[in-house]
Write a structure and sequence with these properties.
- This protein has 315 residues and is an alpha/beta fold.
- It folds into two domains: 27-273, Alpha-Beta Barrel (TIM Barrel), CATH 3.20.20.70; 275-306, no CATH class.
- Helices cover 26% and strands 21% of the residues.
- It has eight helices and 13 strands.
- The chain has helices at 70-73, 89-98, 115-127, 142-149, 164-171, 176-187, 206-220, 245-257; strands spanning 15-18, 21-24, 32-37, 51-56, 103-106, 131-136, 154-158, 191-198, 226-230, 263-266, 276-277, 284-289, 292-296.
- It has an eight-stranded mixed β-sheet with strand order 3-4-5-6-7-8-9-10. It has a three-stranded antiparallel β-sheet with strand order 11-12-13, with no helix packed on it. A two-stranded antiparallel sheet has the order 1-2.
- A hairpin with a 6-residue loop joins strand 11 (276-277) and strand 12.
- Helix 2 (89-98) packs across helix 3 and helix 7 (206-220) packs across helix 8.
- The relative contact order is 0.12.
Length: 315
Amino acid sequence: MCLIEAGQSGECRVRVNIDGALRTVVYGYPCSIAVDPIEKKPLFHFLPGTGILSVATVGCNLHCTNCQNWEISQANPEDEDIRAYSCSPEKLVALTKQNNCPSLAYTYTDPIVYYEYTSDSAKLAREANIRNVLVTAGYINAEPWKKLLRYVDAANIDLKSISDDFYRRVCSATLKPVQNALVMAKASGILVEVTNLVIPTLNDEPEQIGELARWVKVNLGAETPLHFSGFYPRYKMRNLPPTSLKTLEKARQIAKSEGLDYVYIGNVASKEGQNTYCPGCKKLLIERSGFTIMQNRIRGGGCPDCEREIYGVWK
């Protein structure tokens, strides 16, 4: 619980106690708006090859010492070097249309911290036949999460570790709310992909990787894509080396041996780790080079060779 004195902001830095009422100070004022390839989120099973308008405000409800976007996630709205843009939900939806993007992503920091802006924008986007995507750490209570999921089409949710101790030490958070959010998201019927940032010495042991993969399979289903992402020294964690390709390939091998159908490698170039293969006949379905689709053989949502249905939203 975050107890905020009059005139003070909370841990997220974007909600302020003004005359006894909690007010968000970032509603309609994003610090970043850009068009990205959807593969950058990363989402590999949702409208591949399309662009997605991406938006974020400053602030975060976590304090990960390895944060790659710490310049904005750990910033204060009033910081002199932070530039905010006036962009109402209506304008955000209009920008998505102007850029011919079929979907809108709430990303970079965490859409949970600018919840009201995310929710109102998502409602308008849904009315305009624009898909909504969350890129989030999933650290949220059940009721507001349930309400937001009504307007969401896909989400990439971080599962930073299968260890509660890791969450407490590295993120100033706890594991269980994230697990609950993942289960609720998958049960709601939206497309869910999971990302695990593999950090040397902290969460890269084979036993930890295996336990995380088993949890995903049992609680979210074998078809749920799992991305192992490479760590780079950032923010307050510059003392550790980048994650090696060997470690990421080992993690992918372990997760596949645990029965997950789609396991990917990110942040590091990998010959096979970014491609989608059919879990049935093992044939190559989507070939990727970085964020670029080189070929996509999926037809009618399935494998053209064995006709197995492939988990995803393909059109």
